[in-house]
Amino acid sequence: MTARRRRSIRWIAGGAVVAATLALGYAGLTLPRPTATATAEAVSIDPEPSATVLACTGPVLAVGRDAANAALVTDALAPTVTAAPVDGDVPATELSLRAVDVAEGAGPASFVGVPDGASMRRIAAAQSAQLNDPDLAGFAASSCVSPQMETWLVAGSGATGSADLVLLANPGEVAATVDLSAYTADGQIAPSSGAALVLAPGSQQLVPVASLVANEANPVFRVVATGAPVVAAVQSSLVRTLDAAGLDVVTAGDEPSLRQVIPSVTIATTTIEGGEPAASVRLVAPDEDATALVTATPVGGGQPVSQEVALTAGVPLQLVLPALAPGAYTVQVDADVPVVAAAWTTTGFAPGDDFGWSVAARETSLPTAVAVADGPAATLTLNNASASPVDVTVSVVGGDSRTVSVPAGTSVAVPVVSGSVYTIDPGAGTVRASVSYDGAGALASYPVAPGVADTDPVLVYPH
Amino acid sequence: MPARVHALVVVRPEPGAPSDLHLRRALDALAAQTVAPTAVTIVLCGADAATALLARESGHADVVTRPAHTGIAAAAHDVAPNSGADAVWVLTQSAVPDPDALERLVAALETSEAVAIAAPKLVRWEDPRRMVSFGQTMTRFGRSVALATGEFDQGQHDGGEDAMSADLRGALVRADTWRSLRGPDPALTGVDDGLDLGVRARLGARRVVLVASARVALAGTEPAKELSAQMRRAHRERSDQLHRRLVYAPLLALPLHWLSVLPLALWRSIVQLVAKRPGLVLPEWSAAGVAFARVGATLRARRVLSAAKRTGWGPLATLRVGRRQIRQRLDISDAVGSDYERPELRFFSGGGAWLVLGLLVVSVVAFPALLSWPALGGGALAPLSQTVAGLWHDASYGARSLGWGATGPADPFSAVIALLGTLSPAAPSRALVVLWVLALPLAGLGGWFAATRVTERAGLRAAAALAWALSPAFLAALVDGRPTGVLVHLLLPWLLFSALVAHRAWTGAAVASLALAAIVACAPSTGPAFAVLWVAGALTVAIRWRGAGLARIVWIIVPTLVLFAPLIWLRLREGNPLALLADPGVPVAGTHQAGGSDALAIMLGFVPDASATTALAETIGPWFWLTTVPLAAAAVLAPLTRRYVAASVALSIAVLGAATALFVSGLSLMSVGEGVSPVWIGCALSLAWMGLLGAALITADGVPVPTWVRSLAAVVAVGALVVAASPALTSTFTGTNVLTNGPTTTLPAYVAAEGAYDASVGTLVLTPLADGSVSATVVWGGSETLGGQSTLTAARHALTDADIELAHVSVELTTGAATDVVRRAADQGIGFVLLRGAADTPAARATSAMAGSAMDQRQGLDRVGDTGRGVLWRISGEVTARETDRATSALASTLGGAQILVVLASLMLALPTRAERTRARRKPRVVGDTRGQVTA
Predict the structure, then answer these.
(1) ipTM score of the complex?
(2) Mutate to test the interface with B, among A6, A10, A21, A226 (most CBs of B within 10 A)
(3) pLDDT of residue B932
């Protein structure tokens, strides 16, 4: 092979490789590239229902009945408990929580509904008590509620004459740590007596309001639990000079929000004695200064009365309601920042009279159950704060049902039979509801807790 | 007295040799003897019909037939000498004695009663001046040594007539000695039969004499070249030697020798591998097995020997060959000259060392903080297992250290990481930090050495080394924390350096095989490209060099295949072969850029999504890819130069690498959280860069231009690369790199402390995702580790039962379902639950709050606390230990054993020997340059 021949072969072969490389490069620019993408495989799982747990507030407690031990707390009266399962006939397991701070205390009742397979077992329960003791008289009713991680208590007083107690119950299986903070005239405080309280599983503890906020007549409490949720309540009783002047047990109201609705506030008297009003609203804007519009509308319709107030952040305000005709009113608070609110009313200022706290109810769009505790003239008040009318089906569990139409922006009172359990189904709308009692020397109410939805499916990406 | 001689002609057909022709020649020579044998017996060992006919028609008395494969010793052993014979003459069909051979042998035998055996000088029939054998002896340890083999007959050995022994072929043995020794030992296979007979005669106080004047020519004595023939020969040599050792040993030492047979085979296998004779490993074992099992033959031979023994071993000592004599003999055979003289490497004088040193300084300046870090984090980096045992546990078959119940093969990458971590046994994670600091200089070093295969010009070698270290894909891997990309880039030059000479040296093949295994382990996505290159290489060797060295080329892929075999089998069985391409290591979430707009950047060596590329595009604009165009242009023109074949090969590598990068740029094979992890294309781009650089170097080396033009071109090309590299090298200061200091563990210290030395501590890790869903996994041991990652779970194509169970347990834990979920978790071996910090969205916060509260309330879960890495709970009840069933551990041992065996074999083959170095010096370092030199 000659050198020239070899060189020409080289040029041809080399040129072909160069051309092929350039052609492949062009192909790389223009040809579509294959794609294959793994999908992150996820599993959507309907969670197994959790157990329904309710805790009641327990016996009415008396402080200082033993002259030798002024701090001794004892049971004054065991309450009447109304409880029934809502789903199925299997009765709920009833337990008694240990009242660790009460001498020989019976402790509050607690109910556990273990799910039946994939379906939840709801329970409804409430309790009431009527006392006529020298140091403790009046009517108290409260519902048994599910424990919560955060509870707002708008009730109680640390002023002289009050022997109020904060009741903390842990119906769960693990210990809870509770931090109590209070909103007072000095703003938010975290009293040491309410810091890091450890609640053993299945126990109830007490904290005297006076030890948290001595001489504060207008406190609001925030209860934050870690580890396990708790049921918090305030037992409020008043002694005027030497006469017992009323009793109530108050459970959680609505959480701070721009609108608070107290479905039923019973005005029993217009008397004002010694400058003390017969009806007032306690409000606090926990975090920011607020302007709030407080409106009272008669249940069943009528002319609303409203008043605008300014709130300082963290400082509760006692707003005296203007003189209203006796009857049931819905009190609504609309604010520009989240607030909490509750109303206090009394039947009068004579011995044998009673007072009651009405707290804001939470909104529910789901069917919910309510137990009506024993008591005089039990009434279920349904409030529709929305802009369209709502038809609410109210039925006795295992019995009759009827439909109540609640026009937009009004409240309707439905008489109910005490000692029975009802379900409320707002259909497509939303309502707030409360149960209230109004008798001679007996005033009480409690809100209806919103229904519990089945938990949404959870999407899990296992790796 | 005319001696009566009984001649035995053993006919053993050999493949490729006409045995009838040989036999005729032998019989004619026998007939022409000046002293005729009185009787001739022909022993046919499986001879063909023509030979058998010839034997029968030869007119000689006896024809005995024996089965094929009967050894010469066994064939001779069976024939009793005639009662009247004085001596037995052993011949084969290929032996052609000189006419006076028998006469002279008989004369030697008659000189003394003490002479039992007289042996002729064996020469080649084809070339009678070359000796085949003239006497045999053995070393102190019993290895047989044939004397004068292959030497030219210049009468140099004619003086000495005393020998330890001699080859059986052509030997005249006194008949009484034959009878008392029962002939040759039938257990011997034709190598040491003569030696053994002589030794036994000497132990019986007789002598063996060499008769230089008696010549017997042997046909077909050229040692066979084929491997199979070599293996057969090695087997026979070794089994004869072992047999003699067991026979000669004192009775007390016999058990010791017998027991040492197999261990010695292991040792000699290692020696064979180190000596680059892997084909002779198998004969070691077959010979050892035969010797070990053949107890009966050993005992029989010992009885015969003890019956005939008259003296001790003492008189024989002087006839043994010493070590010095052997070395002299080997040196003579080694001294073969060559006219090629390989030039000096000039690593120091050529500037290679300075370049590496300079890159070390650049590296330290570019990543200053790294020196003080205990571990690297960020990107695809993760801490390494804290113990060496943990590292190798992660690399072996069995329960994986991530996932609810994943059991299966480890990624071979885990073994690479284990090896890396073992280099720093006290703190394995530190090894990765050191690797990062040394990455740039090591890349320069590798690039420089690979360039020595392409050019002898020092300047171009330095430029190539710099261009290799400044590869955009490599810098992207460094800045984005991609250990696989960094390792592949550091190993590729050594693969090239060794694979180019693999066909001619075992060291090259073995180094290439290990480098390839490590590279494919790091980047399985480059596997198909390497498969194509390997097939092309094998075809080239098979055609161009007619298969010489094909075994070495085949070996290159053996370690890779063995390491990947379990994974390949598993993926094929589940019908998911694409998952084999998944990147090992920590999956990094990412997305693909839509469309092919980045194809040009990819083909020019850039990783489009890498932070270094993004930073470069922001600095110098969308035309950033112009920085590698000078290099690419030079590469494309390479086939027009004189070395067009080498250039075409280099360009093909570049095209294959770029094609692989483009192909895998559309693949996301692993899931991470709710997203997917795209395949890192940087490894394929490193391969493309290698081809590109090689081609460009060929152009620069071969273009006939003045030196200053060549230098200027190199400076321009490398200068453009420096511009392209600047954002990456300054990333520490501009904050564009993802490297972080540690963490040394991904779990809270509480778990890390407990799990550091105990891989059975399970932690369920729940991570709330942005959309409110939950990512769940189980981490075994003290930390999620780099080696503990597994594509087995990350690249699975369907959810397994274990995944479903994990999802259920996770949901029940996070929602407070009234079930016995804690016990189920504990039964699985899980001791901790970790809820990681949520993404910053309302849905994620809600999930996190719900999960935290549900687990707080759960009986059996104790909250340990909110650690820096999430909220931790401990399962307070009894936790079942995670168990490995017996079948799994047996499989793990088998697989691990096989893989270690192959890797060790490669390592031994990779050790260079003196002979190999000498041979390598006779070949040019540059490959593919035909300028007046041999290419192979």
Answers:
(1) 0.78
(2) A21
(3) 39
